[in-house]
Amino acid sequence: MPGNPVLDAIRHRRSIRKFTDQDVSRREVKAVLEAGRWAPSGLNNQPWRFLVIRRGDPRQAAVAGLTKYGHVVERAATLICVFLDKDAVYSPMKDHQSAGAVIQNMLLAAHSLDLGAVWLGEIVNRGDEVVRALDLPDTLELQAVIALGRPDQKGSSKRKELGDLMLEDF
Amino acid sequence: MPGNPVLDAIRHRRSIRKFTDQDVSRREVKAVLEAGRWAPSGLNNQPWRFLVIRRGDPRQAAVAGLTKYGHVVERAATLICVFLDKDAVYSPMKDHQSAGAVIQNMLLAAHSLDLGAVWLGEIVNRGDEVVRALDLPDTLELQAVIALGRPDQKGSSKRKELGDLMLEDF
After folding, report:
1. What part of A 103-162 touches B (C-beta under 8 Å)?
2. Residue B1 has pLDDT above 80, yes or no
3. What burial letters (b/e) apply to B31-70, b meaning 16+ CB within 10 Å?
4. SS in 3 state form for A130-149?
């Protein structure tokens, strides 16, 4: 399927953990958020909530202090914190899946805009502390923090062969 | 961001539950599976496993009998069953999120190929029965079934306004 830009984006997107000092515009951040908004969810319950932290906001350092990837958080132009609203969820597994769809939409959107992004999941181990540090209600469950900026690396990654993922030939 | 095909695909993809009688080629199914394969996962553990059921396979009716959306399953040209390998998982939340990223990649890929697809989640309520009906090992946890075919409807869906999802202005 040569020349299919959606398949190309899915194939070539990489986690980007090094960013230049350049900013990301509000318009670009909004495009990334919009991509998240259009993810599917079970019963279309859309339980996700977003918080944006721009460079210069003191909360950036607070978040950085709660993950071993603080150096990535500190260098990002923008953080998008993704939460689930516990009052809006209906099935833990399905709501977490839909959060994954949101995050993947955002990563693909960032890639399509020539931005770099990385899905920070380790910080979720201290999700409750993040919620408190951001002075948010405890009805929110942290799903991930997406660090966003202008890429200062190419990124690389590997995957298992498709045959290793198939339960039988097709 | 006019003319960005990735953002357009994310924005315009819809659940398609009605399919024509036309088949989906093996090449197209493979492109959808490849898109799933390139999803991100925590620690790059890639815990997902796939099973493809093509039209004419008696297992299609077996799966149809385990969901109230059996009419969608029966009319699909192809089913992609997505599982997690319990032996490969490391965090239920993060593994379910990555399954969501896989599924979203597959839905976007199908859309980009002018195929129709729907994420069937209700069937997960009987996931153990699906695993047994397909004669698969009980180390697999059903995540979703994607019904795939040539679209015979346009599909429609709505989302909350972005402002309703933001925890504060940005």
Report:
1. 103-105, 107-109, 111-113, 119, 121, 124, 136, 140, 143-144, 157-160, 162
2. no
3. bbbbbbbbbbbbeebbbbbbbbbbbeeebbebbbebbebe
4. HHHHCCCCCCEEEEEEEEEE
Dihedral angle computed from the Cα positions of residues A137, A75, A48 and A141, in that order, rounded to the nearest 10 degrees = -40
- List, as one string, the DSSP characters of A117-134: EEEE-GGGGGHHHHHHHT
Are the beta carbons of A155 and A116 closer than 8 angstroms? yes
Statement: residue B148 has pLDDT above 80: yes
Q: How far is A156 from chain B (nearest CA, A)?
A: 12
ipTM entry: 0.98
Q: What is the largest CA-CA distance in chain A?
A: 53
Whether the pLDDT of residue A73 is over 90: the answer is: yes
**Residue type at B167 in one-letter notation:** L
Closest to A83 (Cα-Cα) out of A137, A29, A35, A44: A137
pTM over 0.90: yes
